[in-house]
C-alpha cells in the first residue's frame, strides 16, 4: 500500500478567501489550452485566427463552467435539486460534471462558430486536442481534494484517503483518470491531429477514446453513494453517460473516413 501524500486542498488562504487547488487546476487548464490554441492558430490549416483565440477561450470557459454545473445538478443532483433548487446556483459549494461541461462546450462552440462563420466540426476538431490538458489537471485536483476515490482493493498501490470515514485502502482512481483522460488522450490527439485528417476525425477520436477511458475507470471508482449502480445492476451513472460518447465517436469516424474531405491538417 502506498501512503497518501497529504496536501492541503486549500492552496492559498487570505482571510476568509480560500483558493483551492481544484480551482487552480481549472484555471491552469484553461490557460494552457489558450496557449496551445494560440500556437495552433498560426498554422495555415487553422479555422481560427490568432485574433479570435481570446474569444474562443472565453466561450469555451463559459461552456465548461455553466455546462459543468448544470450537468452536475441534473445528472447527479437527484433529490437535493428538487428539495433545494437554489443549490444549483451555489457554485462555491462544489460539484461539476464532465459530461455537462462537454455539452456546454458543444453549445458554446456552436454559438462561437455561427457568429464568425466557422464550420462547427472544423472548430471542434481544432479544440479537441486542447481539452485533455484541463481534464488531466482537474483529476489531479480531485486527487488533492480527496474526491471521487476508488473502490476498496488490495493492490500494492492502494491508498487510504484521510477523509474516508471507513479508512479503507482504495484505488487512486483519480490518478487512473489523470493518466488516461489527461496524459494518454492528449498525446494521442496531439499526434493524430499533426497530420491531415478528414473533417470530424479528430473529434471522433476524442469522443471515442474519452468515452472508453471513462467507462473503464468507472469499474474502479466508487459510485456516488446516493445513486449507486443503475442499468443491469452494475453500470454507474458515469458509464451510462459515457456510452453515447463512444457511439458518437464511432459514428464520426465512420462519417469522416467514409465521405470526409481531406483538406488541411485539422478541420
From TrEMBL:
<dbReference type="GO" id="GO:0008961">
    <property type="term" value="F:phosphatidylglycerol-prolipoprotein diacylglyceryl transferase activity"/>
</dbReference>
<feature type="transmembrane region" description="Helical">
    <location>
        <begin position="120"/>
        <end position="140"/>
    </location>
</feature>
<keyword id="KW-0472">Membrane</keyword>
<feature type="transmembrane region" description="Helical">
    <location>
        <begin position="240"/>
        <end position="257"/>
    </location>
</feature>
<feature type="transmembrane region" description="Helical">
    <location>
        <begin position="19"/>
        <end position="36"/>
    </location>
</feature>
<dbReference type="InterPro" id="IPR001640">
    <property type="entry name" value="Lgt"/>
</dbReference>
<keyword id="KW-0812">Transmembrane</keyword>
<keyword id="KW-1133">Transmembrane helix</keyword>
<dbReference type="Pfam" id="PF01790">
    <property type="entry name" value="LGT"/>
</dbReference>
<dbReference type="GO" id="GO:0005886">
    <property type="term" value="C:plasma membrane"/>
</dbReference>
<comment type="function">
    <text>Catalyzes the transfer of the diacylglyceryl group from phosphatidylglycerol to the sulfhydryl group of the N-terminal cysteine of a prolipoprotein, the first step in the formation of mature lipoproteins.</text>
</comment>
<feature type="binding site">
    <location>
        <position position="139"/>
    </location>
    <ligand>
        <name>a 1,2-diacyl-sn-glycero-3-phospho-(1'-sn-glycerol)</name>
    </ligand>
</feature>
<feature type="transmembrane region" description="Helical">
    <location>
        <begin position="96"/>
        <end position="113"/>
    </location>
</feature>
<feature type="transmembrane region" description="Helical">
    <location>
        <begin position="199"/>
        <end position="220"/>
    </location>
</feature>
<comment type="similarity">
    <text>Belongs to the Lgt family.</text>
</comment>
<dbReference type="GO" id="GO:0042158">
    <property type="term" value="P:lipoprotein biosynthetic process"/>
</dbReference>
<feature type="transmembrane region" description="Helical">
    <location>
        <begin position="56"/>
        <end position="76"/>
    </location>
</feature>
<keyword id="KW-0808">Transferase</keyword>
<comment type="pathway">
    <text>Protein modification; lipoprotein biosynthesis (diacylglyceryl transfer).</text>
</comment>
<protein>
    <recommendedName>
        <fullName>Phosphatidylglycerol--prolipoprotein diacylglyceryl transferase</fullName>
        <ecNumber>2.5.1.145</ecNumber>
    </recommendedName>
</protein>
<keyword id="KW-1003">Cell membrane</keyword>
<keyword id="KW-0449">Lipoprotein</keyword>
<feature type="transmembrane region" description="Helical">
    <location>
        <begin position="175"/>
        <end position="192"/>
    </location>
</feature>
